[in-house]
Amino acid sequence: MTKKQKRKLYYLLALLLLALAGYHGYQKSGFYKSAYNEDLPGQETTRQDSQEGKEYQSTGDPSLLDVKLPKDLANQTVRYKAITVYFNKDYRVPNCVAYELTNTMTSMADSRDAENRADYKFERDHDVKGCPDWWDYKESGYTRGHMAPAMDMRWDKTAMEQCFLMTNICPQLDEMNDGEWRHIEEAVHKWSRTAGRLIIFTGPIFTDNMDRIGKHGDIAVPESFFKVIYSPKQNRAIAFVMENKGMPNSWTNYATTIDKVEELTGYDFLALLQDNVENVIESKENIKDWPAYYPRR
Q1: CATH: 3.30.1280.10, 3.40.570.10, 3.30.457.10, 1.10.10.10. Which one for 31-289?
Q2: Which of 24, 126, 146, 189 is catalytic?
């Protein structure tokens, strides 16, 4: 082969590589299509209004995010891009928020080019009946507490935007929100790296005679909150219940079973697992089964 023929061949190979790179970039320009957009019975909304974000497709079973709620509990299920919100129009807070967290998501959320929390503001979701405005919490003495925390959503622009919708928010005292509760959130974030994939449920525990805040005094202030974590790969779970106040002990002291959370809320988590598996998982609580995490104080 002559030098002229070699140069021509190299030129053609270079053009081919550029064409392939352009096609790959086009394929990656799409956004993450939620795995949770399958219809379920009842009042439900799927949000697909935003086209921005990184592409990420879960390979897990989205039905694990389903929660069976009491029939007499007001609920609108809203399936956002990365979280599922079960919203209560009567209390104007979520009954529960469910999402998955994979090690891929966590790596993207912790990267240098992850979304910056400071760039986002709390907003009302006008498509959800009873959703409050951000200013309803103003001068109430309570912070706007994320149920699906922002640290887990930094991997994607749309996920962050929807994380800051008020459908994902409950009134929390700062001593709780920025105290041991935050340490639980940080532990879950770390656990996802070794677990590969976690299914997480978070929400308030409703009781009679709850305090109210807001312009019309109709936003319920829960006295306590729960968090349920399930690891499909390790086939184990743990839960936490914490009062809405500054807690004196380490976050590990508030570990409990899923059975206990179901007793307090009337909800049914992980109902699509086989009964014998579900019964064993939900009855166990052993914080020592989970990787040690020591928060910065």
Answers
A1: 3.40.570.10
A2: 146
